[in-house]
Write a structure and sequence with these properties.
single chain; alpha/beta; 7-stranded mixed beta sheet; 11 helices; 21 strands
Amino acid sequence: MRIGVVVHGPNIIDSGYALKLINLLGEYGEVSARLGGTMGRTAVIDASLENVINIRKKLVPSDSLKIFHDEDVDVIFLLNYGKSDVTGQVFGYKVYNHYADKIDDNLIPVIQIERPGEKDGSIIQWNGNSKLTGILSQRLNLNLITPKEVYDAHIKSDGVCDNQTHRIVHGVSPDENIMVNGVVIGKTNSDKLTLIAKDNVIVDIVGGTLKSHGVEKLGEVDLENAIIKTGLLRKSKVSPRILKRDENDNFEVAFLDHAGEDVYKFRNCDVVITIGDDTTLISSDILYRFDIPIIGITDGDLDKVVEDGFKAKNSIIFEVESGFDDVCGQAIEMKLFGENHISSDFSDIGQLEEKIVEIIKDIKCKYKINYID
């Protein structure tokens, strides 16, 4: 039996269950595993599992499922460890339906294993019929949940109303960040949350407070298919693993202004300029694994999205006046990069710092600099 395994998110990896489940499934056939999600890639690196879980490409989970479908495996597993049973089951429903929309036939069983080891852990067979569902439910002591139960309990109240798109977000707690496609657009103030969009722009939050700057940065969004997360992206306390990177012939600088972009494509650069507090926090934490310093342009409006934000030695953080991080970022992009977000026009980070200071001074913006030793 050929078994495809899609591993989603850092929690299933940090808990140790990703490897345990891959080994367990190996008792029933030949297993191949791949990942979806940026923070999950970091967890794979920290756990030294690159040779077990394929992280070479940045893939959303539904695309990872489709790859296994196209490879004609016998069964596909989706491994996840959501914040709660509700968030995990809703996640699985949306992933499975996105996947089903991408394929012509749907004959390969897709089975989700959710929150293994927890009392509310579950196993869901989204389609087809596989004897492994019952076997694993007993071996792992997981509740059997049907797709209809997930739909009736959590999904059917979503939809379009009065020319507005309503998206219910499940399993939230008060005072959590709300991230849409990698951008923080607000904060919860209730355990019930609904995002509302009109003309593909988020206009209101029920159960939370909008962050107008975040909504502006996000721009137009397909709310029904957007990736929405609340709270911390990675809760576990970890010991980061540093990987050796390739040496460049020239000093290469990259520009990054959106936390949702694929930070890993800059893993061989010498320094990365990051714009905004959240982008700087997330990107520096990832780039720390490759010993890449960042020059962060922030304004102190930080939304904590990871438990620890690691920064490589020699990183430089510019803290500018409130609301000026994007202004400074646009000026840096225009004057130093243009349309190309990688440059070899600098000899070292010191020269780059001097140029950024000049740009910020031209904007007549107050700033202070913090150096990471």
